[in-house]
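testing teh design pipeline on a random one, pls ignore if ur not involved
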């Protein structure tokens, strides 16, 4: 798959969620198969999600770096999934994948998260 196809898949994915009010997306091609995505999604309740991904799609979708940070309208963290290697001492089973839940210092184990599952989780939170 070429990186442009992946960029379009991300845009198509966002159009499937009625909980999304608007979004801004910037992507940068770094070769035929590599690229960087930065986006901000604003939801119908004015909460928002910051997205960052550096991805290589030559053979599979390999996200070298990702961060999905979900915030309240008042700029308070609700959660963040990422794969930064800054929590090595916690011995998380799925290191480096982890989730920060409400408090920056509350780090919990997580599978590698993907944008679609994050958008589903947010949609469920908004419906509550």
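output:
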């Amino acid at each position: 798959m070429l990186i442009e196809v992946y960029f379009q898949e991300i845009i198509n994915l966002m159009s499937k969620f009625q909980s999304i009010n608007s979004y801004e997306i910037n992507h940068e091609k770094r070769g035929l198969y590599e690229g960087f995505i930065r986006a901000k999604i604003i939801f119908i309740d004015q909460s928002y999600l910051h997205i960052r991904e550096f991805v290589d799609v030559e053979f599979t979708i390999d996200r070298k770096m990702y961060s999905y940070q979900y915030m309240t309208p008042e700029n308070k963290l609700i959660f963040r999934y990422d794969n930064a290697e800054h929590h090595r001492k916690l011995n998380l089973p799925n290191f480096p994948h982890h989730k920060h839940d409400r408090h920056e210092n509350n780090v919990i184990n997580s599978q590698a998260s993907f944008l679609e599952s994050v958008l589903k989780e947010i949609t469920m939170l908004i419906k509550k």
